[in-house]
Design goal:
With 235 residues, this protein is mainly alpha-helical. The chain contains 11 helices and 5 strands; from the N terminus they run H-H-E-E-H-H-H-H-E-H-H-E-E-H-H-H.
């Protein structure tokens, strides 16, 4: 098949096809005597799978899966896909806990631990299972603001600041998209004392994760179709 025909079918550019090829995401392509690429139905299945999987799994993860399929490591590829889906389920559960916390008047694990006023970055990192470096990075790029201990200059976090961190944590592993950028900007700009606004953002995050679940399902369908084409699974 001609590159232009595949590009039109998938609504991609021919340069995108060449880029996937150059990075080893599809099997080697034969050339005609005149030097033109000769794509096969197998290549079409790879390109279609890449286009379907990348929005839900990310290009890096999709690329790894494509290379595993080329090496015929089906089980390794399946487990990578399964892990990404398990991570999405974990994020959904975290988002639901955030929403429950906000609907319960802001109560959370930090209050249960007796730290309802101020916590250090180490305490917040331990409570949220986030590296301290991630929290410092969010501060550096303006997603969160911190207070400082007047005596020693250490970062301190109150209930409102922790609320932002909990919302951001839900989106930390998310595939980059305009929706994720908009949600992070909404978290960064929200009034720290406005629980209703935080609740609305938590609801939007849950809706985003629901959408990602559907996008991943579509990606898995085309992943299975690719495995059939390359005869790694039976019809």
């Amino acid at each position: 098949m001609r590159p232009i025909d595949i590009a039109r079918k998938l609504k991609l550019s021919t340069s995108a096809l060449r880029n996937y090829e150059a990075h080893g995401l599809v099997p080697p392509v034969e050339r005609s005597a005149s030097g033109y690429r000769k794509y096969t139905e197998e290549h079409v299945a790879y390109f279609t799978c890449i286009q379907a999987m990348s929005p839900g799994f990310g290009m890096e993860e999709t690329a790894q899966v494509m290379r595993l399929i080329q090496d015929r490591h089906l089980q390794a590829a399946l487990w990578r896909v399964n892990e990404a889906q398990a991570n999405l389920q974990r994020d959904k559960q975290l988002a639901e806990r955030n929403l429950a916390m906000l609907e319960d008047g802001g109560a959370g694990k930090y209050e249960e631990a007796g730290n309802s006023e101020w916590m250090t970055i180490g305490e917040v990192a331990a409570m949220t299972s986030l590296p301290s470096s991630t929290i410092r990075h969010w501060e550096k790029v303006g997603l969160i603001a911190t207070s400082r201990d007047e005596k020693n200059g250490y970062r301190l976090f109150n209930r409102s600041q922790i609320r932002k961190i909990m919302l951001l944590r839900t989106l930390r592993p998310a595939v980059y998209s305009l929706s994720v950028v908009e949600l992070k900007e909404a978290i960064a700009n929200m009034n720290e004392e406005d629980v209703r606004e935080a609740r609305n953002i938590a609801l939007e995050t849950l809706r985003y994760l629901d959408q990602m679940n559907r996008v991943q399902m579509r990606g898995v369908f085309y992943f299975y179709q690719l495995c059939k084409v390359v005869q790694l699974v039976e019809e």
